[in-house]
UniProtKB/TrEMBL annotation:
Highest taxon listed in the record's lineage: Bacteria
Molecular functions per Gene Ontology: magnesium ion binding
Region (Disordered): 1-37
Protein name according to UniProt: Uncharacterized protein
A single GO BP: DNA recombination
Regions of compositional bias (Low complexity) in chain numbering: 24-33
Organism annotation: Kitasatospora cineracea
């Protein structure tokens, strides 16, 4: 009779392209030193193609021109999420990283919030999240990446579905403040 395989010797199942589990197995858990399981959130990235025009908060665009940009970003995010086989999540945290075209000047990555909003709407369209309201989505939080040829937007999505409520404070400090009450 063959011996049962342990987690170390079992054949790993791939979590899908661009999925990261911080060293955990694809199920999202890793053995803790004491023998109890520890939940590690699954992360994956959705990379939009470089060269897309990204609307930013400093632009004053005609509403039809802005709608065209938003539609293109939303569709690109939809296709990119499908391309990486992004899983369906109930709660998530999203960082968006803007990789500017050049590094010649200082940048404020928060100015690309309109582009991130359109891309997250594309994730909702792709079925990654049921909605992008505050009960389902934490963020999006901006980051500035290294320059690339053509501007690029990358979404890093962390699954918060299996994270126990007490540990969500590590992802959202306002939760702890709300529990403590005003001072």
């Amino acid at each position: 009779m063959p011996e049962p395989q342990s987690a170390e010797t079992a054949a790993p199942s791939a979590p899908g392209p661009r999925a990261e589990t911080d060293g955990a197995d694809p199920a999202g858990t890793a053995p803790a030193p004491g023998g109890a399981g520890a939940v590690r959130p699954v992360r994956f990235q959705v990379e939009l193609p470089p060269g897309l025009e990204l609307p930013n908060a400093n632009q004053r665009l005609h509403h039809l021109q802005k709608a065209r940009l938003v539609r293109a970003l939303r569709e690109a995010a939809f296709l990119a999420a499908r391309a990486v086989n992004a899983p369906t999540l109930q709660r998530a945290h999203v960082f968006y990283t803007v990789h500017p075209d050049t590094a010649r000047r200082r940048r404020d990555p928060g100015n690309w919030a309109p582009a991130a909003k359109a891309a997250i709407d594309g994730l909702v369209d792709a079925g990654v999240l049921p909605d992008d309201n505050s009960t389902r989505l934490l963020g999006p939080d901006p980051r500035l990446g290294h320059p690339v040829r053509g501007t690029q937007l990358v979404l890093t999505v962390t699954d918060l579905t299996r994270v126990p409520a007490p540990y969500l404070n590590a992802f959202d400090p306002t939760r702890q403040l709300a529990q403590d009450g005003p001072r």
